Amino acid sequence: MQGVARQFFILGIVLGIVGMMLGISMAMSHDHLEMPVHAHTMVVGWLMSAVFGFFYHMFPVARQNKLASIHFWLHAVGIVVLVVSLYFVIAGNEAMEPITAISSLMVFAGLLLFAWIAIPIINKA
Ligand code: HEM
Ligand code: HEM
User: Fold this and answer.
1) Is 93 helix (H, G, I), strand (E, B) or coil?
2) Ligand that lies nearest to the alpha carbon of residue 49, given by its number in the listed order
3) Three-class SS of residue 39?
4) Which residue of 56, 58, 91, 104 pairs with 5 in a disulfide if CB–CB is 3.0 to 4.6 A?
5) Residue 75 C-alpha to ligand 2 middle, in angstroms?
């Protein structure tokens, strides 16, 4: 894998490891309070990053688009800040909530940018 495809896949693997460690700790402690952090680390952090990685791997024209790197950073910074800040919000630090909100909008902006990059390519493929 090259370029942004590789970056997305590595991000996904790292977040998958972190998310599973949280899942195991939840299961061991019987304390599922942080389930939304585990769930979003796994599905948005691991699964979505892996899907983006496969897409950019399959379509070199997509990863050559300069916007692809902006998509990666929106998704990477967005999901990491989202899950870390959400952890503290759930633990009782409600002052962190605006940070969670902004980071979730970054993840959303990344998906909109992906739509812009990917849909013309999908239509031609
Ligand atoms: C080491 C492996 C894993 C462990 C020990 C684990 C543990 C857990 C636990 C304890 C819960 C809370 C269940 C509840 O309170 O109802 C949970 C929920 C969840 N997990 Fe995991 N998990 C693991 C792997 C995964 C993986 C690989 C994914 C996805 C790729 C995933 C996605 C989710 C989701 C989406 C939820 C929320 C489910 C719901 O809404 O009811 N987990 N997990
Ligand atoms: C980044 C924007 C997103 C926001 C702001 C968001 C917000 C939420 C909220 C408020 C809940 C309910 C949590 C609860 O009742 O405790 C939830 C649950 C869930 N979301 Fe998201 N979500 C986002 C993205 C996604 C995406 C992209 C996926 C799938 C790829 C996803 C998968 C899930 C799942 C599986 C649950 C059920 C597990 C749980 O309750 O934590 N979310 N989300």
Assistant:
1) coil
2) 2
3) helix
4) 56
5) 15
Put simply, whether the predicted model's pTM sits higher than 0.85 gets the answer yes
Protein residue with least CA distance to atom 26, ligand 1 = 42
**Cα(116)–Cα(104) distance, integer angstroms:** 19
Burial of 3 by CB count in 10 Å (0-12 exposed, 13-18 middle, 19+ buried)? Answer: middle
Residue 115 belongs to a domain: yes
| 83 touches 96 (CB < 8 A) | no
**58-105 pLDDT tens trace:** 999 999 999 999 999 999 999 999 999 999 999 999 999 999 999 999
Q: Which ligand is nearest to the CA of 82?
A: 2
75 ligand 2 Cβ < 6 A:
no
Instruction: Give the domain extent around 112.
Output: 3-119
Closest C-alpha to 15, from 71, 82, 99, 69 = 82
Assess if residue 124 is contained within a domain: no
